[in-house]
Amino acid sequence: MQGKKKQKKCIEFDFRGKNLEFIQPIGAGAYGAVCEAKLLTGKGNRKVAVKKFSDVNRDPRFTQRVLREVEIMGILDFPQIVKSHGVFQNEQEKGDLYLAMDLSEID
């Protein structure tokens, strides 16, 4: 008897109107999904991680946790902590929030 393979849920990342280009998915967790993207700037391109928080307003506690994470990342400035490169929403996905940050090595 063969076991069924668990299918990964594909999360859509919509960067329309933003200076980001999708590269590949990285992973997903309890609070959202993360992908690798290219940040397109006038100074050149830089690889970043973009975390998508889906349906941020589904629960007041979840909203509070997401906003706390975004706020703390904007404040922290330490070499071993990834830096935030901005937060944005897509016009078509009103309940979703995206957080762009440094792309770090994983093990």
Give a description of the structure.
Helix content is 15%, strand content 42%. The protein has one helix and five strands, in the order βββαββ. It has one helix at 60-75, and strands spanning 20-28, 33-41, 44-53, 84-90, 93-102. The chain has a five-stranded antiparallel beta sheet, covered by helices on one side. The longest helix is centred in the middle third of the chain and has 16 residues, at 60-75. It is globular and about 40 Å long. Mean pLDDT is 83; it is low at 4-8.
What value does the Rg take, in angstroms? 15 Å
**Main sheet properties:** 5 strands, antiparallel
Cα-to-Cα separation, first versus last residue: 34 Å
Count of strand segments: 5
Shape: globular
Task: Put the structure in a nutshell.
By secondary structure, the protein is mostly beta strands. Helices cover 15% and strands 42% of the residues. The chain has one helix at 60-75, and strands spanning 20-28, 33-41, 44-53, 84-90, 93-102.
